[in-house]
Task: structure prediction
Amino acid sequence: MDPILFDIKNNIGCITLNRPEKFNAFNREMALLFQNTLDRCAADKNIRCVFITGNGKAFSAGQDLAEVVDPNGPSMKQILSEHYNPIILRIRGLKKPVVAAVNGVAAGAAANIALCCDVVLASASASFIQAFSKIGLIPDSGGTFFLPRLIGWQKASALSMLGEKVTATDAEKMGMIYKFFEDETFMEEAMKIASTLASMPTQGLVLTKEALNKSFSNNTEQQLNVEDALQQQASETYDYKEGVQAFLEKRKPVFKGE
Ligand code: LHQ
Result:
């Protein structure tokens, strides 16, 4: 069975983590295929939004723990530098909006893969667990970077140490995720958001993502300069001209993602 499923619908590249009997836990094969699939999304001009979800009950239980005790398995060094770090860097660098549709539990590295996405959605019964501390590890896959920025230092610190399960409703309240939806309508609502993103001015969204990425290390003046430079680029796109023209002509804009 392919550990990653991929299809393209209405300009959305849908990536499904697919080891349902293992709660979609990541092994080397799955991590490398996930990276290839993200590269495929980056290269395909028809894809204007990437959608990541899990097959079955879980989003993903993080690292496959059977693999870490396999003498022929990858080393700790390889797991971080060849599996998770390239995944996080690809998602943050991907020049398209990335939606995480967290359909069930997201634990360990998988929680942090979800949390680094541009729009994080969850079903009501989903949950997020910084499971690392329970096995003597530290949060990886960007956990120590994104979590304090999303929910503040204290909650990030306590959740990282206690490894407690955060429900989707609490995750929404504390700003860890954008929204949760009832299980029955979750996929439909998540897809609606992805479809909206896929029909918007893609270049503007990509430049927004770039500005937000840069805001993490800039002071106010540097960030104003980043906005200045990126806004110039946004104003040179087809979609900006179409957006303004459509407003003035009182019609719906037709964006091309260019
Ligand atoms: C699993 C897993 C799993 C294999 C469920 N592996 N089979 C980086 C560097 C190097 C090393 C380590 O890791 C990392 C990054 C990380 O991601 S560290 C964190 C690794 N993940 C965890 O510690 C989570 C472990 N899993 C759990 O705590 C629970 O399974 C959760 C809370 C996710 C779900 O609990 P339940 O709903 O009670 O389900 P379950 O425990 O019964 O799991 C269902 C099946 O999935 C079960 O298989 P089985 O054949 O017994 O039915 C589990 O063995 C399997 N599974 N997680 N990570």
The CA atoms of residues 155 and 167 lie 14 Å apart. The first strand starts at residue 4 and ends at 9.
